[in-house]
Amino acid sequence: MTLRVAITRAEPEASRTAERVRARGAEAVLAPLLTIVACGYDTNSEGAQAIIFTSTNGVHAFPDTRGARDRTILTVGDATAEAARAAGFTDVRSADGDVAALAALAKRELDPGKGKLIHIAGDHVAGDLGGELRAAGFQIERRLAYASVARQNLPEALLQPLDVILFHSARAAETFVALGAPNATTLTAGCLSATIAAAAGRTSWERIVTAIRPREDALLTATVGG
Questions:
Q1: Buried b (16+ CB within 10 A) or exposed e, 142-155
Q2: What total of structural domains would you count in the chain?
Q3: Do 69 and 124 share a domain, yes or no?
Q4: Whether 26 and 43 share a structural domain
Q5: pLDDT tens digits, one per residue of 167-208
């Protein structure tokens, strides 16, 4: 019997995840719970020693990299790093982890005395990156690049028979729970991180599986196999 796996993240990442799910022999069901809406914001990076991206959505929302291609770029993980390189940034360094790992990377590789940091972020941010870096002496500006708009009703796909629902963000997990979490007690919640698992855990599941590392390949291995 083919495993049916629902993907709740927004496009265009949802389609990329679907390809990876299918490559592992499972059926991918697109069921986005969020819509990403770009916001107009100041993209001037003059005087900054680094730009920080905590999601691929932030990279996609950065409208023009030409004036910032030589800036040092720090990313929370490898997927975001790949998106930054594809966008034209040349000096890209990945924390390959979570916000805590990203803060540690910044403290290790940057100097508080060499200019401010610019965090290109969404309207919902996990952890306190700004607070941790300010405590280490850095000046950091958080610029709102996009908003994640939650659905007001469940996608029809989530009302069909499923085996696994994948959550790549706490925001998506919170939205699913807020919309009633139908049939969750018969399903596996696949969560990219412990923070996301905590959000999903506000309702009852057959089981909750957390990736051993906050990377999609680890998430798919834990939930889909292959």
A1: ebbbbbbeebeebb
A2: 2
A3: yes
A4: no
A5: 998 899 999 999 999 999 999 999 998 889 999 999 999 999
